[in-house]
Amino acid sequence: MQYSAFSIFWQGLKGHTGWKPMWRDPEPRREYDIIIIGGGGHGLSTAYYLAREHGLTNIAVLEKGWIGSGNVGRNTTIIRSNYMLPPNTHFYEKSMQLWEGLEQDFNFNAMVSQRGVINLFHSDPQRDAFARRGNAMRLAGIDAELLDPDQLRELVPVLDFDNARFPIQGGLMQRRGGTVRHDAVAWGYARGADSRGVDIIQNCEVMDIRVEGGRAVGVETSRGYFAAKKIGIAVAGHTSRLAQMAGIELPIESHVLQAFVSEGIKPLIDTVVTFGAGHFYISQSDKGGLVFGGDLDGYNSYAQRGNLPMMEHVMAGGMAVMPAIGRLRMLRHWGGIMDMSFDGSPFICKTGIEGLYLNGGWCYGGFKATPASGWCFAHTIARDEPHPLNADFTIDRFEKGRMLDEKGVGPNPWIQ
Ligand SMILES: Cc1cc2nc3c(=O)[nH]c(=O)nc-3n(C[C@H](O)[C@H](O)[C@H](O)COP(=O)(O)OP(=O)(O)OC[C@H]3O[C@@H](n4cnc5c(N)ncnc54)[C@H](O)[C@@H]3O)c2cc1C
């Protein structure tokens, strides 16, 4: 079913009785060419691009819960391509370009809003580091602007410029960055993949990956065994567990990250702002709620809920930069499970097992990567070789000493 202004008008005349389900609920076949494990943003976009770009449609996406129940429906919706290291810069810029045409592409309103992302800086060394990152972006053809306090005052008057504990010296802005309605991304890709013949199987947990003679041949699930010629893992916070099923140990730990939404208020902030002297970032949703988040909870967990000390820590970060929000009431908060890689960069690659492919290590920034991740993973699975854009996102980069470490903290990511 195509969505258009005309179809909305027509359905209005019919009392909205003619809308069809956005994807089928098919009875699974016992054998597929390709099985994608995980119906989050990355698994669904992979299936979509496998069908759209490579004409492969004998595909199942197996999701243990429901579409959108994982991080794709839990994140704070920020998209950007403001990275410094070339492999990340080019990969995330590809993602940004795909975001820019996404809604037309899959005929679904994902509310892509390029409202700008501003990273605040609060000291001379931090300004230098941000200027360097901005220059690297511009050299790669990506928009970046270094803002002084006066320019910032114009854009975000609600920040505390006069009495802040960490005085605001300026910000690095990417105007093409912004936000996207997160669960609409999952629904749009699911709808697009389904309409091309991909089977989306919900409530189907993968319990084991069968490997015979060094080759992945199928998966044991809560709904029985399914054979496949190729299997892609795209399960975000559960990546290390799924890889273990095939005997692979990954440099990934699972951690909780929380997000928060306040009660709805009148328009206060029309861009995305991140605090540079602590971990706090904020935007305002179309319903008026302030959406914000901060650091990881700091312990390994598979529980999708957070804890009170981190809540207090995040609120303190908010108060340090934007005290005007102090009297707001919190409406909701939740947690998601992050697949933290040791250099902060992802994996999109083949594994040592033939026919088994890996997509993971997204840390707390994988939402913005959703389109490019699916696009590159689809290429890797379909052609059995990486695209140049994901050629560096391999597991063996640690063994070979070619880590992609944006923060420059080496093998000790907890020392920042
Ligand atoms: C609070 C929070 C804020 C964030 N903010 C941002 C942000 O602003 N910008 C940004 O870029 N990123 C952000 N992220 C990170 C981003 O959401 C994730 O990196 C990204 O969504 C992960 O990819 P995914 O969508 O495929 O994951 P998911 O949606 O988690 O998909 C993985 C799926 O695999 C399924 N699964 C797991 N195990 C199995 C199994 N055994 N069998 C079958 N299915 C299985 C899960 O149920 C899940 O649906 C944030 C994350 C959180 C939690």
| N/C terminus separation | 50 Å
The proportion of residues in beta strands is 25-35%
Counted beta strands: 18
Query: Domains counted in the coordinates: how many?
Result: 2
| CATH architecture descriptor name of the largest domain | 3-Layer(bba) Sandwich
Mean pLDDT: 95
Shape, per Cα inertia axes: globular
Structural class call reads alpha/beta
> Which fold name corresponds to the CATH topology of the largest domain?
FAD/NAD(P)-binding domain
The SSE string, one letter per element, is HEHEEHEHEHEEHEEEEHEEEEHEEEH
The name of the CATH superfamily of the largest domain reads FAD/NAD(P)-binding domain
As residue ranges, the low-confidence spans are none
Question: What would the keywords be for this entry?
Answer:
FAD/NAD(P)-binding domain; 26% strand; 416 residues; binds flavin-adenine dinucleotide; 2 domains; alpha/beta
Structure overview:
The protein is α/β, with parallel strands linked by helices and 416 residues long. The protein folds into two domains: 7-77 and 182-251 and 343-397, FAD/NAD(P)-binding domain; 117-175 and 253-341, D-Amino Acid Oxidase, subunit A, domain 2 (D-Amino Acid Oxidase, Chain A, domain 2). Helices cover 28% and strands 26% of the residues. It contains nine helices and 18 strands. The protein has helices at residues 5-13, 41-54, 86-106, 124-139, 149-155, 182-195, 239-245, 308-321, 370-383; strands at residues 31-37, 59-62, 78-79, 117-121, 145-147, 170-174, 178-179, 199-201, 206-212, 215-221, 224-233, 252-264, 272-275, 280-284, 289-300, 330-341, 347-350, 356-360. Strands 1, 2, 8, 9, 10, 11, 17 and 18 form an eight-stranded mixed β-sheet that branches. Helix 2 runs parallel beside helix 6 (182-195) and helix 3 crosses helix 9. The radius of gyration is 21 Å and the shape is globular. The N and C termini lie far apart (50 Å). It binds flavin-adenine dinucleotide. Flavin-adenine dinucleotide binds next to helix 2 and strand 12.
